[in-house]
Structures are given as structure tokens and as C-alpha cells.
């Protein structure tokens, strides 16, 4: 791995990956719309508004791969979604095409499928059912990636990240938790496999009660090692059971699915 | 878990679960049509003929959940089937509805799918093909449970129990064995999950040559820990191979499928 | 066709089939729990309570086939369901087995799948989701038929009848209508095919907006000729649109699915 | 039908639908970004840039349904796509939500699935594989519609229009042709059905060599009456065969799939 | 269509196609291992043993397409199968590759799937289950065709012919009958479509009780016009019903499936 | 296990199995077209050209099972393929039928499915897409086995062997490697299970990035214990990455799929 870009490097996920990927690439090019002060050996920083194509083109020039965590990562106004996630994702792929970058790790989200029932087992072929404008924008990103693969041969991992935190903190996360270490392993596998294609991968650790089946991505060789099981007791203590007809229990997206429209608030 | 009813408590399965669930519920209300003499701390006993609605209503009153192992558990005459398994299961669900009980563990049976070939891998979507009047009655119970879920929101685990004994004693059981400990774990999981729905679960331990795939019930988080593998050598010694066209080898239900009609005997 | 039994001959469907099948069988043995006064040439009458095995055995003796329309045909109390549809169907199949009758036309019902969404296209492999105790009992009948086929080789047509009337009278029936003439044709086809197996057939005419796909039963060769289309205008006038979130529009079973429990009423 | 909006009314499709729908609605509110001079009885005109939310809100106020043909209808620059198809579609759905409009006819496109092979038979469950930025934007629109249905109950017909012209003019259109009359019928059916849900419908006439299967939308009751067959001879004369490995023959999207990136040109 | 080869031209099918295709090709090159005496305008004759590669190469030189009906067309000894159907089919494809022929109509057979149950509805994705050495050899031919398509781009129609005769003469043929006229239409369609791929097509007329679904080949545009229905009455008279457990009724291949091994006889 | 034949005993696989199966059978009858000099206790040797039926019949007489590794095991001329793999496999099955042998381990190959994409997850139902004449011949063998099972009840394991060597030596083998020890375990399981049927099994160890799913063969109880993971680092060093559009990366068959026709070379 030579020169790899990490967008959204100032965010929670970005910070965790900086730590977890130390020593992996010759140069990890951090990028964000907000400045990052402390730059370590093997890292560099390029400020970039993903909504501005010239900046993105500048950022992507000379890189060998892109880990695209940037843009909005929760529900917000359509204007913000549009700038960071619609224009932003288009800019990343179009810059890759113009500059010959061949492989992108795209941080999609479980909120692309958030309106599926929790009793449904999903795999890469399950239809998208977004639970938010944010989820719609991630679905858009997946379609854009598929288009750039089918027409221009740019490969992507479409990683529908569950809940990537130090540990699961509520009952839903017992199903959706992705450890930072497992995510870092996945990034490495995505860049180690000789042929990636355009492949949906659910970003989830080896939790006993997961809703997602990664069998179609087995060829990538990723085998998550962590499990939410060890945190079960703690979570059970701190997060009380809901009534079994509470709408927040019906859908995989949890409160994203039961929240109203962002712009009403 | 507060007050949980255990029907069929005097049967083999019921006895095993009494032991395995010690300390789990505040009160385990044992029930059977035959008397149970020795009642332990944390247990109580209510005699009940499942075919009599008034008794069932009395039994269910004030409970928080039902583990329904009662009724006929092998092939028998249609009259017995009707009383214990048709009327009995209806009475349990109707009592639950009238009294507001929200979750039922229903001991269904592999004999609901006993006429499938042993070379077929089944999952929760496989069509029912009962191998006996007993199997038909368990299928009826599953339909009744589905109806009470769709219309009244009563959740059920429809557990198609394989062969629940201390250990597997013939070649077929190497595929179908369910350890008592794994069954007890499953009961606990069924009452621990925040949303259960109406979910088919094959009651089988982690045997290497199982016919059944529980992937659709993965969200429940049950991971059986025992395996028939350790008993393989013993079984091979004691249970000779049959000719490969012996009808008893063709169907998952084994001799249930090849036996004639009960009432002829 | 020599001697064919028609159960439920005094009911609406039974009356219509008596007319439509004139001349088809050497003898059409009418049967019902209520008396039928006018018996035509080529018909005979045997009174029979389906809940009484001795009577059923008497009825079935000497016949070459059974058209089983009898039992309860709408939601009612569990006791009535049990007598007519649980015991009754068992008695029909068990009598057929004892007396060597090889083929049964079983009038099942769309209410076996009434809790499926109207936007779902069903076929013979769709799981049962009954919308009523009546629907549960018809599902039981289908399982019983499957059991007698798998074990004893008795063939059945499991005909999930939609709405069999002279013409469709509400918007739902534009999807579910089965003309009497198409039903009679189906009966003839079921007895003309050389091998029937145990086959689910949706009993619906060639309506433009049907929910059901009979492709798996194509080998029977039934091609319904009538269509609800000609009645569309009349129905639209007489049956006003409901609000699009009205629960009665959600499910295929219509008001069966949204009605409460029978015995509460 | 009372007051229905027709966006994109100045376009080719819009003009055809104005003619075909005469007399269907009390008022057909024509809308486009370019002016329309001749307004007939039963029509009115409201100029509207779909990229401007205030205008869209003004347009939608007081209407009973929306036929959304507006926005870009061929490949063009991302900026144009973004304004007309990303912002535009969001604005239509968000205005509908705020103002209580309950049903939208959304003109999606076959270019949402244009990278599927011509030898593949598609139905409503086939994954999206867009062949252009335009196709990506229509996929975005379908996701947005699904989101507004799942969260807010707004129903949509997602009509993947093939080639809607007076007649097919090349060999590909023998598969994809949609007559104007069949499209108008579809619009009427979409507003006549009591429950629509959020339903994918391939907009194609009854052509003998179509690639698309509308079985999942059968409940809508649309039965296209025209066929490309009568034009076959003419087309064969005027459009020569290509070599069988010509890339334009491989994909359903035809030259959309084999064209390079718009902004290069 | 310029110069097209017809192998097996002296056989029953070959003779029928000579008549039905008059005027279709500039030159129809008849070929068979037995001599054909009467050669019409627009025809020529080349004797050829398909088991001899040099002869096949000579035959194929200069042609624009091949209709391959030759080889064994019923069960026979493995030696005959090997010469005509294993070597023969390899020789046809290898000659086509060496000489640049791009499209082959391969007469496969329903006996490739003859061990499927008559109650199963088959389509192009159904697994092969040959009912005879002959059926195995036709399956081999389909695999060979698939190989030459995947590696060398030679397109094939793999036509699983049912029963191609002037009219159906037994009950099984009511399901499997293919009229000569429909077969000729299919040949024309196979050579008219611009892209064929390697496509399984069941060769069956529009019979009401067919077992086969050609939906995946719909893009070819073939719509058979004849039906066995008009012959039903005659067939019913002349071909008596069998007992419903007669093995010949169980399988689609009919007596091919129930016959023993050829070389025993 | 009494007297078991091992064809192809002089080949690489044959040698490895001789070692791995020491002590398993009463007598392991080694067979090959080339002589084997060193014969150990518990072994015997019979020279046999699989293309000669009389020899095969002699070989098979008196045996209890056949492990059929013989014939061509890589791409070669059609004449060689025909003798060893077409005639040879027919001879093995026909001899088994004549002499009453009931179970055959057939060494099929991953090259039967070599033209599937590496991004596709295959299972026993995936259609065959051979990548070579060799692959076509193994597909022929699978069809022959299926035929002898359906008609004569001879059971087979159709083992699609990946890459069976001491260790994986290139990147592709990290997916396809089968350890010799796992293969020997599989042979034992195939002969230990009471009912085998005719079952496709992918012969692959427990590699993290395998393309193949053996769930449908789970009833056999085989659980491979080795994994390519330990060899990953070595392989990565010695086998450089290819460009991601290199054709050899597209297909599961690797260079078999991208090689031209054997007889051209």
C-alpha cells in the first residue's frame, strides 16, 4: 500500500482508523473539511470540501486508493446531505476516473436497509429500504459506485457499517456492533484481494445475534474476530427492555426509522 | 422472568427443563394432566387438562410467559391428538389473548417436516410435510401461533425439536440430537430477546451432519454448544447400517414416516 | 366419472356445482348435514354429519372420488370449526384411505393466506398465513391432505377458493372472483388429469388484477375463461374507495383479517 | 380524479399525455420550467423550476395527485442532473408530505437497470444497475419514494419507462417500446387502484420479446394492449443487424451503457 | 439467411423442417449419414458421418449457420451415442470455431430433464436430470455449447424439444407436443434475433398443460401459435388412463425414465 | 470397508490417498493404466485401461465401493478426454450396475464451474459452466452419475475438487486449496453415511476466502479441518498481484478459462 487517502479523517471513525492503520500504508493522506492539527509520521493532511470538485481532484491526484469515510454520517438537512453525500460521492468517483484510481472503500451504512424488519436476515441481494435522507444518500452512493464499476471498471467495497464504537452501548448494538479492529482488518482485506469487483459487505463483528449474512462477500476473506457477546450483561443492565410492540423494535434502523422528518425539528 | 408456566411438566422433556431452569424464573408453574409430587422451591403445580378451556384459563391467569411442552408428544389416536394438541393449543393461545400474555415458547416438532428427504437442507421457509397425525397437529399449532401473532401480536418461538435426550442413541439422532442444556439455553434466549415475532427455530444442537439451517432465526442469538460428534463412535457400534434403499433412510422423520396409520395397529 | 360424492351440497357453492356438473358423473352423491329435498336424475342424497366417523365411512363407501365442499365456510366458533373442519376433514381422508378412494377435491380457501399483503404475488410455495380460525382449519386440512398423499398416495387438489359468486360485488372481489363455471371446469380437470399429486391451486378466474399465480399447477391444464373485468364499472359505482391506509386494504383476506376474535362477538 | 399535476408537461412525454388524458381529471395542472402557450379546457399552467423548493411547494398546494415526468430525461451533466432529478425529486416528495398528497406517479427509467444483460429477464426485485448518471438519478428517485412510503405512507408507482414514442424505430425498441396509449392507461390504473403501495412497474407494451416481467405489479390490473410486433418488418428494413459481439447488444441500456462519461464530450 | 446447414436432414424432424423452411435460406445444405435422393431448388446435399471430423469440417466450410438435428434421437447403445452425439456434437462446435461460424441451433431434448416429476414446473435454470444415455448425451451437448460460448463466443439455442410430430398421439404429448410449424418459427426467430447468447428454450407449443416455462428466453421473441387442446378429445379416446401410481406417470420423460438399460435388451 | 477400488492410483492424488487411507479398508485395489511397482500390505494392483469395458468389468468384480480418481485430470486432446473421461466414466458406472456396486466417489472438478465469476458464491445448485474440454467431460460424468442414481439407485458423491496439493502455491489456491488430509476425511465420510444419494460436494478445505458453499451436503457430516490461511504470507511473497482487469482474475477456473483451445497448441 503506497499512498492512500482517508476522507472524514477528523470524525470518530476517521480517528479510530488512523490509530488502527498505523504502519499499513506508506502514506495515509488525511482529509477533512475541518483542520486536523496533530499529524503523525506516515500521515499527511489535505483540507477538502467534498462538495467542491476542484479540491477533490487535487486531493485524489497521485493516490493509489481511497478510504471514503467523509460526508454526513447521521441524519441532517437535505442541503447538507446533498453537499457532502451526493455531490461529495460523485466527486470522489469522478476524480478517481479522471486520475486512474482503481479501488475505493466506500463507507455506506446499515441505514440503507434500515426499514427491513429485525426478523429478516439480509444479504447482499436484499433490496435497499433507507430509513432517512442520510440512508437515501448512502444508497445513492452505492448506485454511483456500481455505475463507475460497470462502465469504467473502478472497484468498490460498499461497506454497510453497523455501529462502530469502542463497545456496544445498547441492546440494538448487540446485533450491529462493529469493533474498530475488525473494521481495520476489513480495510486491509479490501486492499489485499486481487479482484474486488463492486461488493456489498455488512460491516459487523462476529455477534451472535447479527441480522446480516456476508456469504456473498466471502471471497474477500474477511473474518471478523470480535463479538458483542462479552458486553451483553452490561448492556442488559443499562438498557431496559421495551414493550414488544414498540416501533423502535420493528426495524433494523432503530430510531432512525421511527424519527420523523429532519427538517421538521 | 417472573411467573412462567411449564406445561407437560411431568413428561421427559418437562422434567429435564425443571432441572435445567432452576433459578431462572421467580416462579415456574408446573402443569400436567398427571400429578407431580415433588415440588421444589421456586416451583408450584397446577393440574390441568389442556382440552378443558376453563382449566387452561385458570392456569394461565397471572403468568408472564408460557413454555408449552404439553399435549401428545408421539403418534397416537386422532381423539388423543385432538384433545391435547388441537383443542389444547387453541386453548393456550386463546387464554393468552384473553389474559394479555405476550410470548409463548411452543414445542413444535421435526415431524412437521418429516416427509422431506434427508438430502434436503431445510430452513424456516421450507414447506411443512408432516409424517404423522402428530406431525399434522404440530403444524396446526404453528398455524394457530402465526394467526395469533398476525392478528393479536402474541409472539411465539415455534421450536421444531429434533431428539431431546441425554445423548443420541441411534444414527438418525446424530443429525437430530438436541441436548437438554442447549434447549434450556434456547428457552432463555427466547425470553431475553426484546422482539421475537413469530419465528421458526429448529431445535438441534451443533451436530456436524444436521439437516437444518437456523439462519433466519439468527437474530434470537441462540448458539447451541453441544454436538453429537462425541457420541458417534458409540452409536456406530450399537446401531448397524441399513441397506441404502431402506425407506427409513429416505425421510427426515425416520420411522414416523414409514410407519402405517396409528389406528390400524 | 362414475360415482362422485359432493359434500356441502346444500350450501351456496354446492348448489351451484350441482347445476354446473349436470351430466358429468354417472351418479353425484349429494351430502349435507341439512336435508336436500329436490333430487334430480343422476343425483342421490346421503345425510351426513362430518364430525361422525361412522356416517362418513358409510357415505364414502363405494364412491370413486370426493368433492369436499362441506364443513364451515366462514369464521365461526372454535367448536363448530373443530367439528366440521378438523374432525370432518380427518374423517373424509381416513375414510378414503380405509376404502381405497384415490382422489379428493378439497375446497380450501384464500383465507389460508389472508394475512399476506395485497402487494405480494403468491404462488403455491407461499407460506400459509391464516386470517381467522376458519383459515387455520383450512390450513390444517391442507396439511392432512399432504400427509395422506405422502404416506398413503391419496391425491388431492387443494383449491384455495377466492370468492365464488354469480358476480363480483365489491372491489376486493375484482381480484378474487371465481366464476361458478370456471370452478366447475376446474373440478372436471382435476378428475381428468392422469396424475394429480397433492397440488395447491388458487381458485380464481382470469381477473386482470389477481394476486395469485397458478404456474406450479399448470400441468393440470385448467385455464379459467371468465374475468371480473366486465363487472368493474358496476363495482366502482357501488363500492366507494377507502382511505389508502385503511387496514382492510392491507391484507388479502380483507375484513377477515381486520375482524377481531369470533368468540368475543 | 380532481386536480392532478403533470410535471415536465412541455416535454415529449408530457405533450403525449396531455392528449391522451383529455377528460380524465377535473383539472390537469401543467408544469414545466419552459412556458407552455396553448392551454386547453381542463388544463392550467404553473411555471416551476423543480430545483426551487418554494416553487414546488406552491405548485403542489391543493392538488390530489402528481404525475412526475419532469427533470432531465436523458444523460447530461451532473449539475443538471442534480438540479432537476436529485433536488427536484426530493422537493416533489417533501412538498407532498408537507401538503398531504398521498399518491405519486414517478417516471423512472429502464436506465436504472441498463447494465443488466439482454439475456436476463428482470422483475421488480432485480437489483438496480444504472447505465448513466441519469440512471443513477432515477435510482435515487426510487429510493426517495421508498423512503417516503415506509416512513410517511406516501404511495408511488415507480414506472421504469422503456421507450415511449409513437412507434419503435430501431431493433432495441422492439423490446422496450411503450405506446402512448398504454402509458395513459397505466396512469389511470395507478390512480384507480385502492391501494398502491410503493410498486415498481416496467413501462413496456405487450411486445413479444420484452425483457421485463411485471408479475409483482399484477394487482394494479394494468394490461398493456399494444405490441411492437406490427412494426417489426419496418424496423428490420431500416435498422441493420450488428455483429453479435457489438457491446451495444450486450446491455439492456443500449448506447447509454456503451457511451463514455457525459462530461468528457 | 444465406447458406445454412441442416444436419439430420433425412430424419423425421429434418424432413419436416425442409418443408417448413422452403424459401427461408438462400441455400439449405442438407446433410445426413444416409443419402437423400430428392433435392429441391434452394437445397444441396452433403453426406457426412458426424463422428468423422474431416467430413464435418468439409461440411461446415462456407456456411453461415448450422441447424444441428443430427446424431441419435432416441435411446440406443453407448457406442452409437458416442459416435453421433458425443464426438458428433464436439465436431460440429470445433468446426464452427475453426471456420468462424457464429450461431448454432442445437436440437437438445426434454430427455435432458426427464427425471423431474410431472408436477414440477421447469425453466431454464432447472438442473439437468437425464432419463437415458441419450438424455445424458444431450446434456453433454448443452455443456459443450456453453463452453464454446463462454470461451469462444459461439452462440447457441439449446432447444429441448418435446414431441415434434404432426399431432399429439398420447396423453403425455398433450403436455409435450411441438408442432412442426412452431418449430420452424423458432428456427427463424433464433436466426433473426441480433444477440442470442447461449439460451435454453423448451421446444413446446402453446399447450394448456405444459410443464415448461420459457420466460427466460422471452427476449428471443418466439410465441408458439399451436396448441394440443384441439386434439384432446381424440387422445382421450385412444389412450386409456393409467393407475395413478404407474411409474410412467411420475416422470416427465415418460417411458424413457421407466425403461431399463438399453444394452440389457 | 472391505474391498475398495482406487482408480488413478498412480497419479498425484492417487498416491496421496494411498498414504492417507492406510488401514481404512480391508483391501484397497489400486488401478491405473500405468504399472505401480511398490504394493503395500492391504493393497493389491490391477492394471486397467478405463476405455476398455471388459477390463473395467474385471476390475470392478467383487468390490464394495469405488473411488474413481482415474482418467484425464487436466486439459488435453478430445481423443484422450473421450477415452479416459467419457468412455471411462460410463464404463465405471455400467460395471457398477451390472455387478451391484452401490456407491461411488467420483472425482469431479472445480473446472465444471470454472466460468463463474470469482465474485459469485456457488453451491450445489449453481449451473455448470465448464472452462475446458476437461471440465465438459467432468460435467458429463456428473450427469452420468445422476442418471445411474435416478434409474438404478447407485449413489455418488460428486466431489468438485479444488486444488489438492501439499500446500497452496499461488493466490488462487488460497481460495481453492484442499488438503490431502481433508480429502481423505471426506472419502471416509462418504462411505460412513448411511444414505448418500447423488450429492455435489465442493472439495475445498476450510479456507477463509473460499467461493463455495457446501451447505446442501451438510448431512454427510464432513467438516474440513485445514485452512489455507497459514500459507497466506508465503503465497503473497511468491505470487505477485495481477492488474485487476486481468482476465485470469475474472473466472473461478483461472488460467483454464483464459487458455485457448487445447488442440491449437
From TrEMBL, chains A, B, C, D, E, F:
Signal peptide: none annotated. Residues 4-177 form the NAD-dependent epimerase/dehydratase domain. The keyword NAD applies. Pfam families: Epimerase. The keyword Cytoplasm does not apply. InterPro entries: Epimerase_deHydtase, NAD(P)-bd_dom_sf. Keywords: NAD, Oxidoreductase. It comes from the Bacteria. PANTHER family: 4-EPIMERASE, PUTATIVE (AFU_ORTHOLOGUE AFUA_7G00360)-RELATED, NUCLEOSIDE-DIPHOSPHATE-SUGAR EPIMERASE. Belongs to the NAD(P)-dependent epimerase/dehydratase family. This is NAD(P)-dependent oxidoreductase. It comes from Marinomonas primoryensis.
Amino acid at each position: 500500500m503506497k499512498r492512500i487517502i482517508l476522507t472524514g479523517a477528523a470524525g470518530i471513525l476517521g480517528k479510530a482508523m488512523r490509530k488502527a492503520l498505523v504502519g499499513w500504508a506508506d502514506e495515509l493522506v488525511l482529509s477533512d473539511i475541518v483542520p486536523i492539527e496533530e499529524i503523525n509520521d506516515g500521515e499527511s493532511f489535505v483540507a477538502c470540501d467534498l462538495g467542491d470538485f476542484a479540491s477533490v481532484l487535487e486531493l485524489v491526484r497521485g493516490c493509489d486508493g481511497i478510504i471514503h469515510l467523509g460526508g454526513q454520517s447521521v441524519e441532517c438537512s437535505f442541503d447538507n446531505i446533498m453537499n457532502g453525500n451526493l455531490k461529495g460521492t460523485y466527486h470522489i468517483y469522478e476524480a478517481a476516473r479522471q486520475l486512474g484510481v482503481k479501488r475505493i472503500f466506500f463507507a455506506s451504512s446499515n441505514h440503507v436497509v434500515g426499514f427491513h424488519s429485525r426478523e429478516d436476515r439480509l444479504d447482499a441481494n436484499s433490496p435497499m429500504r433507507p430509513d432517512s435522507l442520510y440512508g437515501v444518500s448512502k444508497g445513492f452512493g452505492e448506485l454511483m459506485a456500481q455505475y463507475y464499476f460497470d462502465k469504467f471498471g473502478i472497484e468498490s467495497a460498499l461497506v454497510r457499517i453497523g455501529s462502530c464504537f469502542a463497545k456496544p452501548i445498547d441492546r440494538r448494538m448487540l446485533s450491529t456492533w462493529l469493533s474498530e479492529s475488525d473494521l481495520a482488518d476489513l480495510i486491509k482485506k479490501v486492499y489485499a484481494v486481487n479482484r474486488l469487483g463492486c461488493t456489498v459487505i455488512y460491516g459487523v463483528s462476529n455477534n451472535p445475534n447479527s441480522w446480516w449474512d456476508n456469504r456473498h462477500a466471502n471471497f474477500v476473506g474477511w473474518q471478523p474476530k470480535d463479538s458483542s457477546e462479552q458486553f451483553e450483561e452490561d448492556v442488559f443492565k443499562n438498557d431496559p427492555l421495551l414493550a414488544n410492540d414498540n416501533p423502535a423494535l420493528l426495524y433494523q434502523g432503530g430510531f432512525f426509522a421511527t424519527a420523523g422528518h429532519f427538517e421538521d425539528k
